């Protein structure tokens, strides 16, 4: 483990991060980025396991994601700074998953509690449960955050549908891009509400399994879902879903999803707004998982308390919906500005 902050001050995505650590072991490789610490509290951010092309790609991802975690925490009225870890998938992982995560847990211990982590893309609750035997600095062991992330996203969808007076979920065409931990939970909640589900994933085996469980869903080829005429497009895979090349082709009324960093750039949110596509900021609506792991860390695990905290995402969103339509300003700009103000005042008072 080595601290590399000084070498990356010129990096485009470096936002005066508090600490960046490179893990460069024989078997275990990746980065941990701590974006902000507030009042000596730990910083929270889940761990992503991915087949990165190279170190630069992984570093950019961890810098962007850790920054987003600070925004998410502030937007959810939490007291913790943001962080994130990314790990490269390696042959060793395929050979001995438990030891791979044991080694990673040892790395986390070296940070003495500055960084609390859990499961993101490619990491499962069982991995976190195993890591807990080695490190106390993991959360999401008792409660699986994916369900609460899904609950927050669906709450935001419901609030927006109601605000725009579009009725309820019955027969609404909703496209879920990514059928992993969160996408699957969203799908189950929405099927219960009689929505018409369109689903896509690069993992064909997974799609077949879900289709046999829920024959009523419609499977759509990869990278084609956003082209469908949908009420809601729900990105639940990776980042940069909306780009300057594709934003004109989205055929939905709104974009509400769990994926982090959905916009390649904030200007794309403005362009979507002009096309009358309501984009809800990822970090505002997907905070349910963070809220649940923070609750677990603070010793609160009862379902009702955590659920109520997650449902409050809907109340926050309602305020921004009213402001956005009153001022005719893209909603994501209002949320970004509010979070930046709060961040500035937190930093000023440190
Ligand atoms: P996951 O790894 O369980 O699932 C991701 C799914 O996306 C996989 O099934 C994968 O095959 C699929 N996928 C990958 N590339 C794709 C593509 N191009 N098109 C369609 N599908 C593709 O991850 P997850 O935990 O469900 O997280 C999904 C997203 O939500 C991520 O961006 C994550 O950062 C974000 N998120 C997750 C949580 C959480 O609680 N897990 C919380 C907040 C945000």
Topology:
Layout: E1 2-3, E2 19-24, E3 29-34, E4 43-44, E5 47-50, H1 55-75, E6 81-88, H2 91-95, H3 97-109, E7 115-116, H4 125-131, H5 145-163, E8 173-177, H6 181-192, E9 196-200, H7 204-213, E10 218-219, E11 230-235, E12 252-255, H8 267-274, E13 278-279, H9 282-285, H10 288-297, H11 303-327, H12 331-348
The protein binds nicotinamide-adenine-dinucleotide.
Q: Which sequence of SSEs, written as H and E, runs from N to C?
A: EEEEEHEHHEHHEHEHEEEHEHHHH
Task: Give the tally of structural domains.
Answer: 2
- Main beta-sheet annotation: 7 strands, mixed
Q: Runs with pLDDT <50, length 5+? A: none
What Rg, in angstroms, do the CA atoms define?
19 Å
Instruction: Kindly report the name of the CATH homologous superfamily of the largest domain.
Output: NAD(P)-binding Rossmann-like Domain
Head-to-tail CA distance between termini: 28 Å
Portion of residues within helices: 40-55%
Oligomer: single chain
Question: Pairing-aware structural class of the strands and helices?
Answer: alpha/beta
Small-molecule binders here are: nicotinamide-adenine-dinucleotide
Q: What is the helix tally?
A: 12
Using the coordinates above, name the CATH class of the largest domain.
Alpha Beta
């Amino acid at each position: 483990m080595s601290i590399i902050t000084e070498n990356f001050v010129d990096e485009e995505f470096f936002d005066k991060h508090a600490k960046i650590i490179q893990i460069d072991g024989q078997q275990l490789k990746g980065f941990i980025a701590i974006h902000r610490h507030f009042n000596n509290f730990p910083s929270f951010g889940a761990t992503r396991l991915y087949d990165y092309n190279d170190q630069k790609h992984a570093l950019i991802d961890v810098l962007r994601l850790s920054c987003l975690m600070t925004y998410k925490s502030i937007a959810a009225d939490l007291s913790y700074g943001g962080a994130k870890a990314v790990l490269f998938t390696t042959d060793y992982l395929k050979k001995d998953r438990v030891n791979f995560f044991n080694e990673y847990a040892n790395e986390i211990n070296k940070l003495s509690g500055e960084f609390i982590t859990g499961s993101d893309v490619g990491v499962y609750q069982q991995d976190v449960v195993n890591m807990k035997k080695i490190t106390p600095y993991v959360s999401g062991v008792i409660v699986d955050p994916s369900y609460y992330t899904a609950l927050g996203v669906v709450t935001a969808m419901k609030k927006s549908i109601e605000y725009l007076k579009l009725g309820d979920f019955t027969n609404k065409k909703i496209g879920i891009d990514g059928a992993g931990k969160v996408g699957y939970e969203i799908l189950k909640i929405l099927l219960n509400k009689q929505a018409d589900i369109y689903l896509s994933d690069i993992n064909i085996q997974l799609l077949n399994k879900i289709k046999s469980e829920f024959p009523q869903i419609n499977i759509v080829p990869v990278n084609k879902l956003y082209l469908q005429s949908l009420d809601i497009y729900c990105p639940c895979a990776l980042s940069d879903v909306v780009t300057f090349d594709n934003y004109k082709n989205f055929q939905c009324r709104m974009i509400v999803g769990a994926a982090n960093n959905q916009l390649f750039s904030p200007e794309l949110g403005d362009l979507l707004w002009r096309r009358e596509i309501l984009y809800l900021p990822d970090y505002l609506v997907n905070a349910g998982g963070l809220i649940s792991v923070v609750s677990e860390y603070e010793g609160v695990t009862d379902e009702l308390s955590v659920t109520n905290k997650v449902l409050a995402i809907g109340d926050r969103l309602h305020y921004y919906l009213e402001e956005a339509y009153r001022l005719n300003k893209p909603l994501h700009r209002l949320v970004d500005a509010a979070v930046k103000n709060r961040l500035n005042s937190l930093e000023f008072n440190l």
